[in-house]
């Protein structure tokens, strides 16, 4: 495996480079149903995607390469360990003669942040490789690789609002309206493994009753308003918020800061943290809230936009 620096990667770029965005994933709800006997956790989560994203480009070439640029490039770690290359290698094992090339990742999303940044990047890589090789996005080999790369990669591959169940492999599309939001990350990484360990479920243990497991939640139908969705989401929870906050108490501060802004309808942690979100009635209120939080906490990462 060869890696190259950003300058050289840019020099190798051509007008034929393919480009895709790895959008931030936000868990609007996250229920831990239980822990399987194999150690994996069964989840049920309403997932949406934000309008902030990493950007990934692919310049066709004989070698599989990766360069990182952008404000958070240093946080990506060693290129050889990046999920972009992991996904590409796994796909190469399943598609003879896979056309590859040099990836350049413009990293703007915080890492280990509960918004699936690395998974979104890997999903973008799979979409780009599919495009370069004439593969359908629902090709069984692509789906298999997404599942093997990481639990959040399948949902990021589609990047559509959905209910995600199991260990991330089952996706039910949702007709979600555009939800004005603010995302905040205190720039404190949280390891997903540590949060699940803090949850403390034993292999084979259920967190909810059997009746709850088989009872499907009825989410609002197409055409429902933001207010109707917020009411439905407010009845849910993020079961990882408690253990994550015990690991990083600043998460509680972020949720409090979001809840205290004018017009915040719902504030909650996403994924395993530490990124939190709030949903607002309109984008103007979301922008004002983001400005206030950024002013009060200049060291935090803050984004105002929409979820869909």
Would you state the CATH class of the largest domain?
Alpha Beta
Dominant shape: globular
> What is the third-level CATH name, the topology of the largest domain?
Ribosomal Protein S5, domain 2
Instruction: Look at the structure and give the mean pLDDT.
Output: 93
Tally of discrete structural domains: 2
Strand content: 25-35%
Distance between the first and last residues' Cα: 37 Å
Give the class from helix and strand content and strand pairing: alpha+beta
Low-confidence stretches: 1-14
- The percentage helix is 25-40%
Total number of beta strands: 10
What's the story with the biggest beta sheet? Answer: 6 strands, mixed
Instruction: Quickly give the CATH architecture of the largest domain.
Output: 2-Layer Sandwich
Q: How large, in whole angstroms, is the Cα Rg?
A: 19 Å
Number of helices: 11
State the order of secondary-structure elements, H for helix, E for strand.
Answer: HEEEHEHHHEEEHHHHHEEHE
Topology:
Elements (H helix, E strand, L loop, with lengths): L5 H7 L5 E18 L5 E21 L3 E5 L13 H12 L5 E7 L10 H17 L6 H10 L3 H6 L3 E5 L3 E4 L5 E7 L6 H8 L10 H5 L11 H9 L6 H7 L2 H10 L4 E6 L6 E5 L2 H14 L4 E7 L1
């Amino acid at each position: 495996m060869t890696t190259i620096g950003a300058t050289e990667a840019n020099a190798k770029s051509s007008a034929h480079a393919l480009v895709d965005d790895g959008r931030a994933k936000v868990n609007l709800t996250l229920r831990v149903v239980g822990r399987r006997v194999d150690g994996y956790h069964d989840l049920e989560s309403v997932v949406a995607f934000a309008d902030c994203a990493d950007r990934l480009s692919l310049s066709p070439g004989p070698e599989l390469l990766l360069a990182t640029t952008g404000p958070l490039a240093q946080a990506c770690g060693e290129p050889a360990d990046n999920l972009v290359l992991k996904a590409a290698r796994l796909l190469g094992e399943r598609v003879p003669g896979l056309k590859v090339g040099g990836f350049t990742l413009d990293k703007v999303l915080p890492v280990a942040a509960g918004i699936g940044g690395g998974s979104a990047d890997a999903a973008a890589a799979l979409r780009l490789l599919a495009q370069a090789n004439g593969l359908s996005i629902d090709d069984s080999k692509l789906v298999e690789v997404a599942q093997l790369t990481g639990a959040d990669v399948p949902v990021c591959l589609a990047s559509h609002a959905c209910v995600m169940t199991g260990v991330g492999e089952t996706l039910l599309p949702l007709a979600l309206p555009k939800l004005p939001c603010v995302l905040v990350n205190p720039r404190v990484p949280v390891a997903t493994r540590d949060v699940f360990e803090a949850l403390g479920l034993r292999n084979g243990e259920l967190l909810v009753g059997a009746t709850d497991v088989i009872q499907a939640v009825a989410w609002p139908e197409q055409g429902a308003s933001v207010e109707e969705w917020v009411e439905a989401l407010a009845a849910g929870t993020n079961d990882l918020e408690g253990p994550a906050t015990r690991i990083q108490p600043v998460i509680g501060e972020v949720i409090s800061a979001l809840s205290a802004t004018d017009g915040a309808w719902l504030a909650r942690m996403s994924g395993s943290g530490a990124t939190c979100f709030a949903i607002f009635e309109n984008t103007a209120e979301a922008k004002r809230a983001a400005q206030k939080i950024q002013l009060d906490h200049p060291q935090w990462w803050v984004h105002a936009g929409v979820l869909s």
